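Key result, reporting period 2: structure in, sequence out.
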């Protein structure tokens, strides 16, 4: 008689036996992750790696917001920064106050209590903030480390009440929670005041708050910054000019900067009825002639409905765009600091140098995004001759203090042969000498390496412009250094000759039998000739 087979185990029994999960059990554990939850667990991505850096990042984000708001409103910025010790070397309360236009009541909770909320992400014009993360992330870090909400006081006009808000973030839902809202007395006509209590560590040095504010004043010569340090010391960085930077104009995307996925989305969302109208209406630098050429190269009719363009046809459209010569986007969306102001700011903050020069390149384009590069240098004087050159890096007028080795600016400076310009340089290192190099990249969208916005990514177009600007400053430096060497050599020769002039006078007296008076006259004439030759 055949032996009867045992029945197969049920799924639940099998799971208990093996301890393995099933598709159903895994599905039950899946849930949506809010952006606030993600950055709470990955705060290092936003620049909150450690207490020292977190303190600087929080102040940086608040100051950036203040400067952007003042400039957009046409107000010369006056910014006050104060750092108060709550618990020594552990907890601080930072205060950043500005004279900007203030913030309307409905927007305050969203700006400070919701990540990825802002007005600049889709705006193609130069600004400090881009992602709508900065100041809300600073508040989130403060909430995470101290449990305290952000306190915001804002006034939009002299006849409007000053409102105070206490705002926290619901990280599970990425939305603001207002625990208190009230009218308060505040003796300002308009402006915003932000207070965040957070865990931090204060330290002076190259990557300190003091240095960040000093460099901010260099890149923003129209700003006055008043700073009160934790020890009570006050510093004021006065503005060099009252003239605000020229107002930037928002531009449309350039065809060269659009990828296939974005193009398909734009085709679906456009209000244009024809493909030709879409190209002219939704992109910059596309006129009737260029639109016609793109359509012809793509094998599409100009009257095709944009919403009905298939994926393969969109792929052909991208290829046609790349094969069509299109004018570079307009450059009124970016504003450089300018060589004259850059040198004036550098002289104010680095006053001990003997030589200053700058170079502002013409606007260029990477991936359809306009950008402009500026470089300035200070050399000689009382600067340290035996140290490596100091480098000031800026992006859209914001100092970059961390990750210098990962930044294209640093690599461009290191990659320049400074020996050609009279300086010593070890292989793969910064030049050695009494030198400060400042580099600024302005763009509608700065290609940072991470959300913490501390280093600029490698783009050949940006690197080329940086190299050319550095080389232009380097050539002027070489002329100065060579002139200094010639002057030093001439002074050395003069000193040698001066030593022998009395002996020459005595020899002439002996040979020509001159009187003492004639000898002295001859010595005087020889010295006059030497002085005139030195000035020629």
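The corresponding designed sequence is given below.
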């Amino acid at each position: 008689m055949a032996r009867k087979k045992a029945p197969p185990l049920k799924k639940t029994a099998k799971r208990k036996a093996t301890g393995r999960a099933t598709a159903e059990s895994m599905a039950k554990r899946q849930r949506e992750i809010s952006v606030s939850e993600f950055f709470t667990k990955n705060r290092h991505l936003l620049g909150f790696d450690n207490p020292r850096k977190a303190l600087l990042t929080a102040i940086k984000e608040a100051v950036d917001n203040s400067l952007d708001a003042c400039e957009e409103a046409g107000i010369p910025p006056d910014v006050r920064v104060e750092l108060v010790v709550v618990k020594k070397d552990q907890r601080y309360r930072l205060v950043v106050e500005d004279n900007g236009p203030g913030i309307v009541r409905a927007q305050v909770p969203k700006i400070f209590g919701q990540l990825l909320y802002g007005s600049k992400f889709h705006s193609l014009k130069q600004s400090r903030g881009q992602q709508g993360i900065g100041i809300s992330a600073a508040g989130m870090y403060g909430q995470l480390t101290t449990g305290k909400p952000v306190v915001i006081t804002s006034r939009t006009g002299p006849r409007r009440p000053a409102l105070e808000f206490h705002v926290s973030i619901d990280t599970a839902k990425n939305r603001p929670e207002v625990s208190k809202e009230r009218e308060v007395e505040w003796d300002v006509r308009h402006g915003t005041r932000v207070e965040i209590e957070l865990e931090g560590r204060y330290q002076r040095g190259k990557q300190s708050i003091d240095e960040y504010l000093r460099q901010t004043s260099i890149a923003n010569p129209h700003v006055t910054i008043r700073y009160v340090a934790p020890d009570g010391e006050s510093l004021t960085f006065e503005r060099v000019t009252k003239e605000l930077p020229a107002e930037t104009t928002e531009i449309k995307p350039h065809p060269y900067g659009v990828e296939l996925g974005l193009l398909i989305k734009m085709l679906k969302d456009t209000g244009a009825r024809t493909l030709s109208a879409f190209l002219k209406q939704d992109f910059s630098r596309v006129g009737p002639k260029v639109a016609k050429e793109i359509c012809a190269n793509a094998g599409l009719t100009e009257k095709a409905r944009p919403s009905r363009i298939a994926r393969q046809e969109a792929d052909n459209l991208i290829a046609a765009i790349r094969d069509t010569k299109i004018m570079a986007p307009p450059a009124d969306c970016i504003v450089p600091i300018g060589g004259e102001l850059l040198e004036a700011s550098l002289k104010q903050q680095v006053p001990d140098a003997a030589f200053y020069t700058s170079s502002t390149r013409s606007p260029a384009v990477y991936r359809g995004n306009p950008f402009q590069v500026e470089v300035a240098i200070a050399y000689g004087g009382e600067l340290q001759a035996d140290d490596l050159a100091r480098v000031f890096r800026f992006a859209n007028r914001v100092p970059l203090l961390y990750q210098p080795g990962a930044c294209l600016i640093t690599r461009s400076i290191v990659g320049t042969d400074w020996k050609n310009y009279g300086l010593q340089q070890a292989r793969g290192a910064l030049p050695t000498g009494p030198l400060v190099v400042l580099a600024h990249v302005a763009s509608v969208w700065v290609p940072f390496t991470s959300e913490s916005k501390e280093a600029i990514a490698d783009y050949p177009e940006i690197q080329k412009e940086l190299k050319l600007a550095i080389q232009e400053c380097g050539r002027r430096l070489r002329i100065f250094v060579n002139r200094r060497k010639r002057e030093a050599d001439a002074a050395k020769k003069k000193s040698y000759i001066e030593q022998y002039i009395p002996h020459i006078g005595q020899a002439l007296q002996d040979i020509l039998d001159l009187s003492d008076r004639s000898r002295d006259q001859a010595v005087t004439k020889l010295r006059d000739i030497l002085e005139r030759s030195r000035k020629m």
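Residues 460-512 form the longest helix (53 residues). The two ends are 126 Å apart (CA to CA). This case is discussed further under Risks and Mitigation.
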